[in-house]
Amino acid sequence: MTTFKVSITINQPVDIVTDALMNPDNFPYWQTDLVKFEVIERKPGEVGSIGLLHYSQKGKSYVMEDKLIYCEPGKKYVSQVTSDVLTARVETILQSSDNKTEMTLIWEGQGRNIILKLLLPLLRNKMIKQSRTELGIFKNLIETKGSNFCE
């Protein structure tokens, strides 16, 4: 099992951060290689909601399923993300303080095939760097555009 944790402080209140985080149209703007988030079942942010994450990386497309398995609105969201080769638990924690929001991401995952089981621990530092970059992009977008990055 590979695990890591990254955090960032966003200069926006938690309700705006929550709105931005629950808007699937925003995802491709800050998540690396993500082309679109397709809602399959229920509304994003509701326990049991399912979406498909469509990625394109170096000319190859792949899809991952994202199922929300736990939610404390505006505070904590836990998703199970799966594909043919990977299973991960992604926990996002929001803490409000003085019109600012600390956003913490905890990622725990493992490969479903022998190659990824061996590679994932070696990729951990690269994944941490990528997650920090993505949170920085998210912070910049929300601080400049609010909760809707498309406008």
Notable characteristics:
seven-stranded antiparallel β-sheet; Alpha-D-Glucose-1,6-Bisphosphate, Chain A, domain 4; alpha+beta; globular; 151 residues
Global Rg: 15 Å
Query: Percent helix among the residues?
Result: 25-40%
| Percent range for β-strand residues | over 45%
Distance between the termini: 39 Å
Q: What's the name of the CATH homologous superfamily?
A: START domain
How is the biggest beta sheet arranged? Answer: 7 strands, antiparallel
**Domain module count:** 1
At the first level of CATH, what is the class?
Alpha Beta
| Lateral arrangement of strands in the main beta sheet | 1-7-6-5-4-3-2
Query: How would you sum up the global shape?
Result: globular
Count of helical stretches: 3
What is the residue-averaged pLDDT? 96
The overall strand count is 7
Can you characterise this structure?
A hairpin with a 3-residue loop joins strand 5 and strand 6. This protein has a 7-stranded antiparallel β-sheet with strand order 1-7-6-5-4-3-2. The protein has one domain (2-145): 2-Layer Sandwich (Alpha-D-Glucose-1,6-Bisphosphate, Chain A, domain 4). The mean pLDDT is 96. It has helices at 14-21, 27-30, 114-145; strands at 2-10, 34-41, 50-57, 60-72, 76-82, 86-97, 100-111. With 151 residues, the chain is of the alpha+beta class. It starts with a strand and ends in a 6-residue tail after the last helix. The chain is globular. 29% of the residues lie in helices and 46% in strands.
